[in-house]
């Protein structure tokens, strides 16, 4: 039930890092590294243990160990508490305590294994769909991918362009919803159109049935353009179509 459990390092890697740390601190130190199959490990069963090193954030765990030892008929361990330095790289999205969850947070976006060659996937273009509510970061991610060489398509902008005068959906939208949604300059009054469709599922479906297929067609056209230009990464920023 750990957060980002798939990013937990294998036991062998973690043991090797601990071994390197212990040998760096004191090469003559004698130690055993034991995998823990439960929250307590050998601390509640080993009669030879005398002391448990804890920190402020793990003291409660040490007290739980002693409680378990007493239940098992073993003497309590001396709890030696050490002070931990604050993490200088701690970010606001990470836990306050020093834990592996902070490391996993930093591993987000890291390649976990080499890319798998799948003959069922087209080699080019590779289309990425970005979706989410307002403020979820679609624009920021699209800009980042654009800086990396991707060809970006904004489905919202295409949605607005399909019903401008001369656009592929203009005539059908006007015919369906009436000339009262048309401004004096011939453009569609988005507020007037919105008043007709929002809150009315049938009217909204009529509008999306006209507009969405045109948006999809234009997206496909732009993907073909990107492919012709040699752009193999195509993020499509698509929250759906908005008025």
UniProtKB/TrEMBL annotation:
Naturally occurring in which organism (per UniProt): Pedionomus torquatus (Plains-wanderer)
InterPro entries: Depp_CoAkinase, P-loop_NTPase, Rossmann-like_a/b/a_fold
Claim: Transit peptide is one of the keywords in the record: no
Name of the protein: COASY synthase
Keywords: ATP-binding, Nucleotide-binding
Entries under Gene3D superfamilies matching the protein: HUPs, P-loop containing nucleotide triphosphate hydrolases
Database matches in Pfam families: CoaE
Domain of life: Eukaryota
Biological process (GO), any one: coenzyme A biosynthetic process
Gene Ontology MF terms: ATP binding; dephospho-CoA kinase activity
Gene (name only): Coasy
SUPFAM superfamilies the record matches: P-loop containing nucleoside triphosphate hydrolases
């Amino acid at each position: 039930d750990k957060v980002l459990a798939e990013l937990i390092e294998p036991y062998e890697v973690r043991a090797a890092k601990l071994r390197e740390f212990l040998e760096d601190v004191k090469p003559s130190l004698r130690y055993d590294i034991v995998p823990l199959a439960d929250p307590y490990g050998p601390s509640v069963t080993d009669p030879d243990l005398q002391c448990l090193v804890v920190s402020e954030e793990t003291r409660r765990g040490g007290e739980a160990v002693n409680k378990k030892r007493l239940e098992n008929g073993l003497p309590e361990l001396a709890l030696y508490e050490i002070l931990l330095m604050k993490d200088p790289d701690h970010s606001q999205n990470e836990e306050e305590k020093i834990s592996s969850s902070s490391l996993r947070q930093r591993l987000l976006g890291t390649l976990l294994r080499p890319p798998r060659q799948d003959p069922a996937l087209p080699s080019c273009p590779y289309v990425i769909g970005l979706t989410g509510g307002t403020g979820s970061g679609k624009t920021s991610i699209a800009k980042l991918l654009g800086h990396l060489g991707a060809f970006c398509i904004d489905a919202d902008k295409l949605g607005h362009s399909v019903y401008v005068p001369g656009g592929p959906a203009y005539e059908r939208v006007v015919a369906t919803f009436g000339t009262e949604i048309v401004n004096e300059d011939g453009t569609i009054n988005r507020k007037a159109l919105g008043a007709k469709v929002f809150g009315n599922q049938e009217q909204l479906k009529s509008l999306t049935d006209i507009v969405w297929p045109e948006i999809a067609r234009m997206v496909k056209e732009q993907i073909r353009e990107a492919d012709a230009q040699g752009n193999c990464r195509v993020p499509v920023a698509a929250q759906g179509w908005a008025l």
